[in-house]
Amino acid sequence: MSIFEDVSEHRYGKTARHFKVPSSYIDELFRLKEVALPDEYIADRHSKAEDDVLWPNQAVSLVANDDNKSALALVTPDGTGLTPCRTKIGYYGIEPRNREQTMLFNLMDDPEVRVIVVTGAAGTGKAQPLTSKVLTPSGWRLMGELKIGDLVSTPDGKTAPVTGIFPQGKKEIFRVTFTDGSQTECCDDHLWYTQTKLDRDKKREGSVKSLNEIRKSLRAKNGSRNHYVPLVEDLSFDSSDLLIAPYTLGALLGDGSFSSGISFTSKDSQIVERLASELAPLECTVSNVAKYQYNIYGGGPGYRPSNSYLGRDTEGNVVEKFDRLNDALSAGYSKQVCRASKTKVPYQGLVWERIEDTDFSKHPLKQALFELNLWGRTSSDKFIPDCYLYQTRENRLELLRGLMDTDGTVSKDGKNITFTSVSKNLAEGVQFLVQSLGGTASCSERHTAYSNSQGESCQGKLSYRLTLCLPSDINPFFVSRKKNRVVPHTKYHPRRAIDKVECLGKEDAQCIMIDHPAHLYVTDDMIVTHNTTAIGAYALDQVMGGREDSHEKLILSKPLEIVTKTRYWGTVPGDENDKFGPFLKSFSIMFENMIGRNGTQYIRAAIERKQIEFLPLELMRGATLRNAIVWYDEAQNLNQHECATLGTRIDDVGHSKLVLSGDLNQRDRNLKRVHTGLHKLTSDVHFLRSPLTAHIDLKVIERGEIAELFHNVFESDLDSRE
């Protein structure tokens, strides 16, 4: 009985195969760096293309029978053994996003592999629902609102432009919930950068995985959460001028009242002194009116707001008018005027009405609160205005300190920091501030309790309690009695693990490409997620990465008629630049996105130095392509004769490499599948036996709803005719 249990979904030529094996076999693979294949899987000169043997350079995925370990490997060039794939491999900041791409990068990096065929459906992408939030320098934007050129926030505190948008139609959507309660939604193939328990135990970096892979390994062997995602660093926002100092606004949101006048409660002299100092430029003064109670007056020193009092007769005519209560007292009325204005019970034969001072120009703080839509808010409906959330790091931290000094607590041992509010919106705002500073804030709910006048315990309002975990260099307090008690984290730093994944059904979705080396952006609840990447990173690195074994040039091509709608180069109008322009566009944009800033100039300089050339197959005839990487895209449109012509142009002495990429199910020419060069190559036994060749079929397929419809309608009919 074989030690290999074949669990491959598909068996086609040299495409990747999947096996269950004993755990000891994987251990031996990593220890010896090469292990023998079982005899029944070793191909010989009598093997046929349809046999289930393993061919030279074929990619193999191994999983231990007890599922406790796995490995990726390649069949040796002589076809008798396996060697492990390198898992830490990447070019120009682009790393493999799944097992298939890891295998592909290893094959491309092998100098002995001279011809690589990469097949797979067009439109691969990692989608999120159109309703998912994506963080930008000006705040949250919905995924469906993004356009090419829009800037998005990256977790390293920078920004990156959106360079590609790929609608995916209706996709199966999953809700991903994290240990701090934060959530986001994405499709099953969405990419995440995670660090597993094994990564942490071995003190190694994480890797990019699809949600599908994560779902299958959600818990480690000991039952603990397995996948941790990175937190954001110093986010960058388009800050604007602020009407109120951030700390002062935070303190007023915590312990302030501005439903009629403006007041706040505090027993900390540091808070009172700081508010007085920061309000002085607004010509506002702080006055102690009772124990721990302070009023804030506008209009400069000595100014006090006034209320007008009107006395109306039974017909509603104004009989008395006083600008302030003291004027009514001087006229012989008592303070009953004030009470009567509230109860509407006639006093001295008149119905009294109080007109509040609405001259906001005399109270800049009141005017500012009004403009921020905070005037009149009570404790249960306070919130942090967006212009304060999307601010500089310093302003966000000072706002948080004002809130924490008033409504925050720190335990006696200095390790447990919390914030409590009866306003859900305010709690969510504080959660945003903490997450934007690289921390986590998990939320719990509970009802407050109080004693009535009879001493009975009564249920109060629903409150929201945040438990904060911040980077060790951030102290969320300004007041000394709290600030000095905080113990910085030395062991348990802020981190966020994936707790559960739930299927929600199908929704419209799309994926985006951004111009950033790590290709990470920030989504709902400051969750760091991945985006689409390009396979061309290896080819660019080979030519321009300064490697000792580098190639002299990169030659890029695709079918002429796909770009120009004609098969004959001479009939293309214009000079050489006009002719080559359509070829340059798609490739150059891809490479510029990889390089990032100044990418356009960088690529143009490489073209001028002849390090990168764009060459139609029609101009390759009679040429020998030496010491070059030749990448032919849309190769499914090559007929067998053209494919043979291309292959015979590759130098047999040097170390040139030919990469053919395409989707056999999407042909733009009137070719039957069996007549295409790619089909002939990948199914011919000479190709399969050769130690110079390899084939990877990327099976992650993301199509738009319309493309999927047409694929389903025509695929079976096309296949039956072929």
Question: Could you name the key traits of this structure?
Answer:
5 domains, Archaeosine Trna-guanine Transglycosylase, Chain: A, domain 4, 35 strands, single chain, 722 residues, six-stranded parallel β-sheet, disordered C terminus
Walkthrough of the structure:
There is one protein chain. The protein is an alpha+beta fold and 722 residues long. The protein folds into 5 domains: 81 residues, Archaeosine Trna-guanine Transglycosylase, Chain: A, domain 4; 139 residues, Endonuclease - Pi-scei, Chain A, domain 1; 178 residues, Homing endonucleases (Endonuclease I-creI, Roll); 49 residues, no CATH class; 185 residues, Rossmann fold (3-Layer(aba) Sandwich). α5 packs parallel to α11 and α16 crosses α17.
Please sum up the structure shown.
Helix content is 26%, strand content 27%.
Domain module tally: 5
**What would you report as the Rg, rounded to the nearest angstrom?**
34 Å
Relative helix content: 25-40%
Q: Output the structural class.
A: alpha+beta
Q: How many DSSP helices?
A: 21
For the termini, the CA-CA separation is 38 Å
Uncertain runs = 530-534, 562-566, 700-704, 715-722
Biggest sheet details: 6 strands, mixed
Q: Per the principal axes of the C-alpha atoms, what is the gross shape?
A: elongated
The CATH topology of the largest domain is given as Rossmann fold
Overall average residue pLDDT: 81
Tell me, what is the CATH class of the largest domain?
Alpha Beta
Largest sheet, order of strands side by side?
1-2-4-5-6-3
DSSP strand tally: 35
Annotated CATH architecture of the largest domain: 3-Layer(aba) Sandwich
Strand percent estimate: 25-35%
